[in-house]
UniProtKB/TrEMBL annotation:
It is an enzyme of class 2 (transferase). Its cofactor is (R)-lipoate. It catalyses: N(6)-[(R)-dihydrolipoyl]-L-lysyl-[protein] + acetyl-CoA = N(6)-[(R)-S(8)-acetyldihydrolipoyl]-L-lysyl-[protein] + CoA. This is Acetyltransferase component of pyruvate dehydrogenase complex. It comes from the Eukaryota. GO terms for biological process: pyruvate decarboxylation to acetyl-CoA. Pfam families: 2-oxoacid_dh, Biotin_lipoyl, E3_binding. Belongs to the 2-oxoacid dehydrogenase family. Residues 69-145 form the Lipoyl-binding domain.
Amino acid sequence: MSKVLRSISCNTRIPVKLQKNIVRNLSYVCVKYEKQILKNFHENDSFYCRKLPIYTLSKRFYSDDLPSHYKVMLPALSPTMDMGTIVSWAKKEGDKLNEGDLLAEIETDKATMGFETPEEGYLAKILVPAGTREVPIGKLVCIIVEEEKDLAAFKNFVDDSPPTKAAPPPAAPSAQPSPTPSQPKPPPAPIATPSSAPSFAKSSERLFASPLAKRLAAEQGLDLKSVGVGSGLFGSIKAKDLNKASRGVAEASKAVKGDGFEDRPISTVQSEIARAVLQSKQTIPHYYLTVDLSMDEILKLKQKMNKSLEKEGVELTVSDFIIKATALASLKVPEANSAWMDTFIRQYNAVDVRVPISSKKGLISPIVFDADKKGLAQINKEVNNLIAKAEEGSLQSFELDGGTITVSYLGMFNIKSLSTIIVPPQACTLGIGSIQKRLVPDASNGTKVSEIAQFTLSCDHRVVDGAVGAQWLIAFKKLIEEPHNMLL
């Protein structure tokens, strides 16, 4: 192993001491360094890493029958990605490729991301057409050659390799598995194990399944025994086997399409959001604290600051102030800037604010990192940049993974209040309604018209009890109603 990890894309030399934080996976090594998730691949006793989303599984091959070529496999564009959807190809067969060119758009469990060309050369063969869903990580998606004259050699190339490297099972069955006989396709509805199942499925009473498959089965109410033989080693059940089983049940009970409705397919992102919010509501003990806060001073300060920032092309919004106030309040009450980790509570030193954005590609929640250390103008620029990248589908994985607290603002829709679902493993999320004029008591004139907004803090009672949640709102109230405190 080399003593230094090197990032080809950004020339970052990673100190060897950070190698103790490396998390190894079947086909890659992952390390988080300076807020950037890096993937490292071992080749000839050296480690090379690239910043997302450039990294991929690409290997150079030599053959007596075929010229030198690179096999490009589907990469893991997020730590939680198990499969992806090829949304579109930006290049067509025969096109010249330069390293860093957009090669394809891939929909992950987080968002639709651009997949950049890993090698220079020519695109010889596309093996997974656009629109293909549930493509497993490590699946061969295309072939790249170095010379244009070699394109013709891959015209009829067919991928006969397994889609992924199979993980070893928790324990091998005592009986030696017999060869898998040819078997017909199982019926759409997973009602029973096919009679032509391999013999090793019968020789052991223990059911082998990946941890992800077990969790998804529990959430979907599926009986693993009804799935039958999985696609993993020794017939172990993987997550994609559950997806096929669930789809089979849905197809078996699918109603005939009529004139009064239209069935729309569920995207990978929608499916992941549905799973996450269901898990959150079922497993996290939510409670809610609501306050009405005056926005008068923030609106006045925003107007003054925008005049001074006009030459710089910066126009602050109320959201910028709220993000900053959220970060500073979380520093004052760090118990709210924490996460439930099952066996312990993790308290963060920095505040990374997750900001849900409604884009053409659906709901996406990028992150403003270290919001407590940034000024209002910098927060504004980052949020606008994240919104633009969300619309383009160019957000990188590290911009979507993590966050220590979430802020969700629906003021632009004239919504009075918003109670949000907690994003696990975070302890709190903040929901904000629209700013509305109200008649409030005034010491001088008896009453006055004030700009009021309602803020609702959703808390995980396992981490933040009622007193701590109230303390956080008190600190937040002081920052909102006296915004000069943000400058102290």
